[in-house]
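Q: Got a minute? One more chain.
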Amino acid sequence: MEILSIFSQDHHLSCPTCGAGLEDISSIGVKMHQQIEDLGSQVQILTARVIDAVDKWADYEDQIRALRTQLKQRVQTTQVVDPKPQSKRPSIVFGGYNFPLFFGSGRNASQSSPTEKTPVASSSLSPTSPTSSSSSSSLSPSSSLSPSSSSSSSSSSSSLSTTTSNTELTEALTREKTLRQAAEGKLSETSEEIEELSAQLFMQANEMVAVERRMRANLESRLEILEKRDQEKKQRLERLENAIQRIERVRGLLSSRSKIKAVA
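A: Always. Here it is, folded:
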């Protein structure tokens, strides 16, 4: 019985070579599961980042489309507005400057002819009449030049509007290009980071699984060795118990014989 108590006290998992105690397999499995859960949470965080990047890319594309539509509308408006002054310029030049001069000079000539005839009839009475006719004829071109000045001002305003629209279009195009380049750069950076992190995570997961399998194999082999030793110890204990029982029987027989001899 003392041997059984000693065996129960000394019965624990230990290394057969060095005698050091082994950790429980359940605790090692819990640690491995915790590490796997941490890796899964990291993968979820990375997927959330990818979704955010895709959403940002979609927003950038929407902004680019809106800018393109605005540019198309502005180009159409400029194309509609620009031909009008060009179509009016010939009519303004020919109808506003030359023809009024021609008709005005004819009128002035018709008006100046009687004034010129009067001095011929009465040259001594009105010597200053030719100067008045010449002044009236000189004033007529100034009245005919007013349409040409209005046409030049309208053409200058139209040219200014076209230049401003062109500058706005170029600025919008540059903004669109910069936004697109920034979005593409961010997408490339995020994709590279995601690829690197995913590769690292997969490598770590594979290493963890390999280490876990090795640990399990080592623990299983050690457990098999310990189980074999336990079985051997049990067999030895059974043999010892049988031997003790035999010794007690022999002692009982010897004591009974000694008692019989003493009685005899």
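A: The radius of gyration is 58 Å.
Q: Perfect, thanks.
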